[in-house]
Structures are given as C-alpha cells and as structure tokens.
Design goal:
Helices cover 51% and strands 7% of the residues. The protein has 14 helices and 6 strands. Helix 2 (57-71) runs antiparallel to helix 3 and helix 3 packs across helix 5.
Length: 334
C-alpha cells in the first residue's frame, strides 16, 4: 500500500508542515486549516500553498530556501541557509511579513559587534534577497526591506610578505593546514576553490585544477588553476589519500570549512600578533606576481578574472610597496 506524507507541527515555526521529498511546506497555524490545505495540496502537489504578507517571516524564508535548494547550487543554498537561520532565530517567532521593519534588520546586525562590515553586509544581503524574491514571485507587493542601506563592505588591504608567510608556516604544527596555506600562497586560488577541489577536478597531465563552468564562480566559463611544483606535489599526495570528496581536510579527516580555517588563523594570531586569512594569501599572490614583472592580463587570468579591472581595484596592493614604486618611477624617467 502506498504511503503518503502526513502533516506535522513544527514548534519552532508555530505552524503545521508537510514533508514532500526534501521540502517542508508550510500549511497553516491551526490544525483544521492545515489539514484542509494539506488535502488541497495533495490533490495538486505541483502548486504549494502560497505565502502572503500576513504570514510569518520564517515562512517566507522557508519558501525562499526551498526555491534556492531546487534552482541553485548546494553551496549557494548553504550560504543562504546559514545566514537566514541566524536572522530567524533573532526575531520574534510570531513576526509576520507586514510587521517586519528595517529596524529588525538593524538590531540584528548591531547584535554582532565582533563581525566585520563585510560579514554584516552579507547578513543584510541574505534577508533582503529573500524578501525581494517573495516580491518577484508575487507573494508580497513590496519588500519591507527594499530601502534598507547595507553596511559598506570592508576592503581587504592586508598583504602578507614572504617573511610573514614563512612565520605562518613555521607556527603551523599539522601538515593538513600547512598544505592549505601552501597551495593558496602558491596558486592564488580562491578559498572556495581550495576548500572544494576534489580528485575529479585535477588534470595531472596539465598540472592544474579544472572546475567546469557549472561549478566555477559566475557559472559561465570553466575555472583553471595552474599548479606550481609544490602545489602539484601536495595535490598528488592528497589525491591518493582522498580519491573521493574534498582533498583538503583537517587532522580528523573532515573537509576544511571557512569557519574552521578562520579559527586556525585566530589561533595563529595569538602567536604572531596579526590575523591573516586565506584571502590575504590570494591578494599577496597577485601583488607578488605584478612586482615580479608579470603583466596584468596574465595575472588576471591566473586569478580567474575575465579582465584586469578587478585586479586593479582589489588585488594589486602596490601602494604598500613604496620602495618598488620608487624604483619603477626612476626606471620610467630613464
């Protein structure tokens, strides 16, 4: 006999839901109304019950996450889920969409004084996108957070010198984190690339990693990361150890995550007095390459950018190398 999903009550959301596949669909707050909607939904499962401005904010968030899970990459889904769950836990469980105001968002980001401006900006982006999606889908007439001004994202100005990088390596006891540091320093790859690369992405004959367009940032063209001898040897060693799943893992065999890497840098700060991050090493790669005479187009390609504009705005921190600029000025006047 075929079995059908049954409605159940979620205490955290104060409402009845039904599980259909990987989706949890909200029905209603009251039991009678929930079962009425349940029978309607089961008769036409392709049309989930709509949300409205009188529904809970958490309901809109759940509907948005359902959409993202179906139509976006798993990484995108996790990015939104992690941030939106924080927001839903910070607001009253009974808050409806028509009660939502910008001050709810402001209070939320103000409750995290230890977070960077970039992190706070991403917090805002997540809930604003969810509300804008509800507006685009016709669930609400207008997002209540449309005019909220996000914090300006902080720029990463830190450049790690060769000596500072060597101190990071020397003060890292375990090989697993040293591997991650070395490959990022040697290739200038994005953290999201080093943390996600698998054996299937490795082109041994070409000494490179190749992410197909569907897995690359932007989703339009493949991302190719060329490996130095040191990075290539690390990659080959990890491929033998982990033929399936992410290559870079901690001492427990678990894949490195952004939070775990940041915690390690936090511990290194106690020893070195300066906190770095994987993006600092990526920025340093670009600056070193330009100072060594590589042209900006080549550096942009190695970094995974379609042109040199991003390189000029964010990565080429030559202003932090005055002696180099002085020497270039003298050469220009010869």
């Amino acid at each position: 006999m075929a079995r059908f999903p049954k409605p159940f009550f979620r205490t955290a959301r104060l409402a009845w839901f039904v599980q259909v596949g990987s989706r949890q669909i909200r029905l209603a707050e009251g039991r009678d109304e929930a079962f009425r909607r349940y029978h309607e939904f089961m008769a036409a499962p392709q049309e989930p019950p709509p949300v409205s401005k009188s529904e809970l904010v958490a309901v809109v968030v759940d509907a948005f996450l359902d959409f993202v899970q179906q139509h976006r990459s798993p990484e995108t889904y996790r990015w939104y889920k992690d941030r939106l769950e924080l927001f839903c836990n910070a607001i009253p469980a009974s808050l409806t969409v028509d009660q939502l105001r910008p001050f709810h968002l402001q209070k939320w980001i103000d409750s995290h004084p230890d977070r960077s401006n970039g992190t706070k900006r991403n917090y805002c982006r997540s809930i604003q996108r969810a509300m804008r999606w509800a507006e685009e889908q016709g669930y609400i007439e207008r997002s209540p957070l449309a005019h909220f001004k996000k914090p300006r994202g902080g720029s990463r100005e830190q450049v790690v010198s060769v000596a500072e990088y060597q101190k990071l390596v020397d003060n890292t006891a375990d090989e697993s984190f040293r591997d991650l540091l070395t490959v990022t320093w040697e290739t200038g790859c994005r953290p999201q690339e080093s943390l996600r690369v698998e054996a299937r992405h490795v082109d041994l004959a070409g000494n490179r990693w190749v992410f197909p367009a569907s897995e690359a940032k932007g989703g339009r063209v493949p991302r190719v990361i060329y490996l130095t001898p040191a990075a290539f040897e690390i990659t080959k060693r990890l491929m033998k150890r982990y033929p399936q799943g992410p290559l870079f893992r901690n001492t427990d065999g678990r894949p490195w995550t952004p939070d775990a890497a940041n915690c390690r840098f936090g511990r290194l700060k106690k020893k070195l007095g300066v906190k770095c991050c994987l993006y600092s090493l990526r920025h340093s790669f670009a600056t070193r390459a330009l100072m060594r005479g590589l042209d900006s187009v080549t550096v942009a390609v190695l970094m995974g950018h379609s042109d040199t504009s991003m390189l000029a705005r964010h990565y080429a921190h030559l202003t932090q190398a005055p002696s180099f600029l002085l020497e270039q000025a003298r050469r220009a006047s010869e």
